[in-house]
Amino acid sequence: MTSATTEPYPHALRLQAFDAEDLALISAHLQDATLRVGDLAFFKDKRRFALVAARFDWPAHAQGRLERAAAALHFDAVRAVRHQGVAREKGEAMLALLAILFEPQAGGPEGRVRLVFAGGAEIVLEVDCVEAQLSDLGARWPVSSRPTHALDEDAASGP
């Protein structure tokens, strides 16, 4: 039995994705997440790719709070991983996740999952199907500002 009083993190996010639509929801929750290159891992024998990130809590922002939460994301049924613009030897280097996209191949469930980062970096997962899980790992912490993008500033300044 679980109640709000026994739940250590009552607002912990837990999502699963089994298709492109589900993955788009996970992508929205991870937009502007930051992560260290050293917190990316491909477990070839288990066919699993995993990462740990500090996600910005956009729903909390809509309620007037600026917060981040540690979150783990993993993909199963991964055949191969390709990195572009990711300095894997620099474990302390930081990445900012912009989006997670799924590109189906040959009309079946297999395809490519693309993790797109600011600055042109990208990780491409060759997968048998979409099978992902996102879980918050602990309490949220306050931050001083929300992530912004050049498009945000252009839109705010008007024509």
Sequence-ordered SSE layout with sheet pairings:
Elements: E1 14-17, H1 20-30, E2 34-36, E3 40-43, E4 48-56, H2 58-62, E5 67-75, E6 78-84, E7 94-104, E8 111-117, E9 122-127, E10 132-142, H3 150-157
Overview of this structure, please?
The structure is a single chain. This protein has one domain (14-140). The model is unreliable at 1-7 and 153-159 (pLDDT under 50). The chain is globular and about 45 Å long. 15% of the residues lie in helices and 45% in strands. A hairpin with a 6-residue loop joins strand 7 and strand 8. With 159 residues, it is an alpha+beta fold. The chain has helices spanning 20-30, 58-62, 150-157, and strands at 14-17, 34-36, 40-43, 48-56, 67-75, 78-84, 94-104, 111-117, 122-127, 132-142. It has 3 helices and 10 strands, in the order E-H-E-E-E-H-E-E-E-E-E-E-H.
Quick structural overview:
By secondary structure, the chain is of the alpha+beta class.
